[in-house]
Amino acid sequence: MDKITIIGAGRVGESTAQILAQRGLCKVLALVDVKEGAAAGAALDIQEAAPLFGYDTRVIGDTDASIMADSGLVIITAGIPRKPGMSRSDVLETNRGILDGIMDSVMEYAPDSKVILVSNPVDILTYYAWKKTGWHRSRVFGQAGVLDSSRMAAFVSLETSYSVKNISAMVLGGHGDAMVPMTRFTTISGIPIEHFLDQETIDRIVERSRFGGAEILALKKNSSAYDAPAAAIAEMVEAIVLDRRHVLPAVAILEGEYGERNLAMGVPCVLAEEGMDRVIELPLTDTEKAMFDETIVNIKNDLKRLK
To answer: What CA–CA distance (Å, rounded) separates 123 from 89?
Structure first.
């Protein structure tokens, strides 16, 4: 891809930029941040690391949103972070206001781009951005499930001591406490984790996955997670830029899948050059359906706050 823009040069945005540059996923990488010098400083720091990592990506940064012009992909990480004890929904009103201005700029300067939402609450803001643009759902989607699934896979590895390279996890639903860890589809070299772990341990992994972000926030106190979120974003970007047709969980606008319409939530998707190519609908057990319904209720309650 010729150009990718990251809006928000905080910890998540800067870490994402570093990974994208190292992977050589674009020729030009632009960072935008309202704080004077933040984006320019982060861009210069990453640029100066290029000789050591061996990448030729040109990294630029500014407060002026016009530098995103001609971007094929815009990644939005801007917004106020959670503080200890806060839920993702607690930052909705403030981050919606921030997103309003950002999307105005995206539509002005990068009207042909695809947009990945990362800012919290990501399910609600993905829906809001989609409605505001009027674009096809393939062009506006969010990052959540890749991160949640990575956390779950990491916890499975810690419990079993098996290589993370052999572990595949799947987490659906809303990005938050009501996420739906799909243990049936979580495997070690294709073997369901029930073969390796007892139910008590699996339940503990599920619970820790649900509160993975809050656990890090409580430990750091002055910062949310940023390394794992950045890696998750990069995984999605690579699938799009290299047209991998990679099946990944993403926040997508539903058009009848899972019996829902006109809302965004985490579901398995095919990510390819055109963006979110299609949603994959999985059969759900009664237990999974109950958890799925719970997360839908939470998302719909937050959506009501947009009106």
So the answer is: 10
- DSSP label at 67? G
> What pLDDT, on a 0 to 100 scale, did the predictor assign at position 85?
61
Residue 288 falls in which region: left (phi positive, over 0), alpha (psi -120 to 50) or beta: alpha
CA distances from 200 to 159, 196, 273, 292 (A): 12, 12, 41, 21
Strands 167-168 and 114-117: unpaired
Mark whether 195 is an active-site residue.
Answer: no
**pTM, 2 dp:** 0.95
Whether cis (ω within 30° of 0) applies to the bond prior to 121 is: yes
Where do the structural domains in the chain lie, given as residue ranges? 3-142, 145-304
The model's pLDDT over 164-203, given as tens digits with 9 standing for 90+, comes to: 999 999 999 887 677 888 999 999 999 999 999 999 999 9
Q: Which two tokens stand for residue 170?
A: 């799947």
Could you please state the CATH topology (level 3) that the domain comprising 3-142 is classified under.
Rossmann fold (3.40.50)
Give the residue ranges of the chain where pLDDT is below 50.
none
CATH class of the structural domain 145-304: alpha beta
Catalytic residue among 136, 175, 195, 246: 175
Residue 187, Cβ neighbours under 10 Å: how many?
A: 20
